């Protein structure tokens, strides 16, 4: 299994804004910090805002910040909203000579469920519970 770039950027934005949540951060600042495309970030921030994780402020002094405390942001929920919850293999959406006999789909479902169960055990706050990580994410060139 591999995370999409969208989910990767989603987690990066949440990490960055959580650690710097004492102020508004900007797309340009985050893009510069991670050396990633501002256009990709724009879509990520829009989705996070629509999901209620970020507040956005327009204008000259605008920016973004977390809309909820990091303790209330569950990684499994973020992942499900970003990646979706479609089955790893959609056997019903195609003709297959093994339909009705193959057990692979149930194994994939079990694996996917275990993956999601693991992610749901953790919050954003728990992921940021490292002084070393926090020091890497705090920017001084505001």
Summarize this, please?
The protein is built from 7 helices and 2 strands, in the order H-H-H-E-E-H-H-H-H.
| Poorly predicted segments | none
Q: Roughly what fraction of the amino acids lie in strands? A: 5-15%
Structure classification? mainly alpha
Number of structural units classed as domains: 1
Query: Could you tell me the radius of gyration in angstroms?
Result: 18 Å
Average pLDDT confidence is 89
What do you see in this structure?
With 142 residues, this protein is mainly alpha-helical. The protein has a single domain, classed as Winged helix-like DNA-binding domain superfamily/Winged helix DNA-binding domain (Arc Repressor Mutant, subunit A, Orthogonal Bundle). 51% of the residues lie in helices and 6% in strands. The protein contains 7 helices and 2 strands. The protein has helices at residues 5-19, 27-34, 38-50, 75-83, 104-119, 124-127, 131-137, and strands at 54-57, 63-66. A two-stranded antiparallel sheet has the order 1-2.
Features:
single chain, 142 residues, mainly alpha, Arc Repressor Mutant, subunit A, two-stranded antiparallel sheet, 7 helices
Q: How would the blueprint of this fold be written?
A:
Layout: H1 5-19, H2 27-34, H3 38-50, E1 54-57, E2 63-66, H4 75-83, H5 104-119, H6 124-127, H7 131-137
Antiparallel strand pairs: 1-2
Helix pairs in contact: 1-3, 1-4, 2-3, 4-5
């Amino acid at each position: 299994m591999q995370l999409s770039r969208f989910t990767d950027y989603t987690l990066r934005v949440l990490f960055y804004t959580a650690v710097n949540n004492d102020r508004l951060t900007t797309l340009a600042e985050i893009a510069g910090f991670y050396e990633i495309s501002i256009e990709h970030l724009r879509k990520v921030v829009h989705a996070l805002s629509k999901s209620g994780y970020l507040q956005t402020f327009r204008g000259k002094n605008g920016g973004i910040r977390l809309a909820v405390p990091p303790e209330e942001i569950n990684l499994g929920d973020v992942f499900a909203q970003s990646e979706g919850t479609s089955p790893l293999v959609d056997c019903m959406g195609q003709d297959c000579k093994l339909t009705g006999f193959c057990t692979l789909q149930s194994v994939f479902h079990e694996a996917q469920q275990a993956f999601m169960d693991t992610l749901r055990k953790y919050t954003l706050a728990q992921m940021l519970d490292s002084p070393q990580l926090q020091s890497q994410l705090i920017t001084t060139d505001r």
